[in-house]
Write a structure and sequence with these properties.
heterodimer, A: about 375 residues, about 30% helix, about 25% strand, B: about 290 residues, alpha/beta, Elongation Factor Tu (Ef-tu), domain 3, seven-stranded mixed sheet, about 20% helix, globular
Amino acid sequence: MASVGDRRRIDRGSFPALLAALRSEGYRVLGPTLRDAAIVYDEITTEADLPIGWTDRQGPGTYRLERRNDGALFGYTVGPSSWKRQLFPARERLWTARRTGEGFEVAPEPPDERPVAILGARACEIAAIAVTDRVFDGAHRDPGYYARRGRLFVVAVQCGQAGATCFCTSMNTGPGVTGGFDLSLTEILGPGGHRFLAVVGSEAGGRVLDRVPTVPAGDEDGPAAEAIVARTAASMGRSMDTTGIRELLPSRPEHPRWEVVARRCLACTNCTMVCPTCFCSTTEEVPSLDAEQVERWRRWDSCFNSQFSQLHGGSVRQSTQSRYRQWLTHKLSTWHDQFGTSGCVGCGRCITWCPVGIDLTEEVAAIRTPAPTATAPRGTP
Amino acid sequence: MGSSPAAVAPVGGARHPYAPTPYRVLSRVSETADTVTITLAPAGGAPIDAHRPGQFNMVYAFGVGEVAVSISDGGRFPAPLVHTVRSVGKVTHALAGVVPGQVLGVRGPYGRPWPTEPAEGRDVLVVGGGLGLAPLRPLLQELLAHRERFGRVEVIYGARSPKDLLYYPEIQSWRQRTDLRMQVTVDAAGRDWYGDVGLVTARLADVRLDMARTVAYLCGPEIMMRTTARDLVDRGIPEEAIWLSLERNMKCAIAQCGHCQFGPVFVCRDGPVFAYRDLRRLLAVREV
């Protein structure tokens, strides 16, 4: 019986046995797969569903798939989807109500009990799950989120390469996986053969690994995995100076850069949709045609939508500038006040998927530079 | 699922945070052309928790949606819940159009109440603008219920016109009291109005309180609260003795939907009542 902390080697040929083991343990397996010219997370039934031999090339506002010259299973970074969608679905029914003679009855949505294994969670994504765990906790802990969270099995994969928009080292979230997993894998290519170093992170992880043909990790496997993580850490495409960032952004609400970035920002909400921690939502009332039954749904919303801050007198944040400022200030600063952590894990998705390539690391650097002219900021008392 | 209209199936032993509790409309009173006050009682099931002055509920109209509404009467259960609603959107239009007997949904109470302890042994100034009087009414009721604990109490209430004054009979009774001074002012009026015309800030000059030992409670349009608070600080009320109630878009009321953020705070959870001292800097910035 493999126990927590055990390190085992899985040969490439035995990898399908891992998928089979997850299914035998009752998990529905979700993982990376190719769809619409991107690597997205969806149901995985065989290893052929994985983007074997593919990689991604990313930049501000650009994402391209390319062929690798090897058969790596996890030779890419993160795509537009994140595990947020699994724990906090883009649309979720909260309850159903039925009209009765004199009023109505409310039936909360029963929790989905099926265990799910996520395959290929990166260090930044595990950090993001820890962030949303805090968001949906509290005095009114979200029952749907925590039902799904409780039956989630995490197969982490340490990154073998960094993307051009990655900056997890700046946010101290990766690329090494340090916790929050049931099983952790490092894919090792090259000398010694194509193999995986597996680390057991939980008893459930041990039970799964027991069903997979493994051998104890060799003397060279640990250092090889460490070298892979070190190389990835050294090749981050972006970096962000986070020194004093919590105080910096709220102290510069009138910095001229907000207006400059707003000239490019389309307020399209892409950054908030791909962000693995953005949690804003709205509710929808969906009545049946005969109005005898209604469903209450929660769906993702975005602070970039003009209706988001709507009051009867109009939106509080009318300008794109104020919405970008809200998003960035919240993500990097006020998130600390609210949840005791940054809202940014350095995954770079918001840079890649911004249609005009706005790069938050660049915006932070610009706002860090004091405004050139010393005119009195508007609205200062 | 039981047959009672109030049946709410528990999830994991606790009530689902988004599930409303059915409440029956007992009465509906027109306050102004577009504003009504409704009273609600549990429709057969267990009531929601007791509330404090300044808290709010999410009030739900079947098939339409729900909206945050302040609780405008201090009566604790089994007294009915009282909400004053102005018809400005789809949901508030439905709430303003209810008939007695109709069943609505309620979840709450939410938010931090007006703190009254800081005002004990001190003078009190209550300033309301328009619908802002609604969450101040339970506070006034509490002050008057324990009148001996407080010094002089003054109220300034401003509305757009005499026709827009809320709780008219209660205002009349407050104005007749000898242990309370109430000034009422309107933005515009005809010749049949004998009261003051002008902004609430214009009435501050006439307040007869020991400002250094006064606690102020403000609720109304944000610009009114901002200018009033500044004026009060100039007149000697300490920043930490000024309390105000903020309004923001709310979908969940449990600090999870993100809509009501005001800088670092969630207005639904950390407010709606705040010390002016804590918000002064943010209130001065546009579009926060």
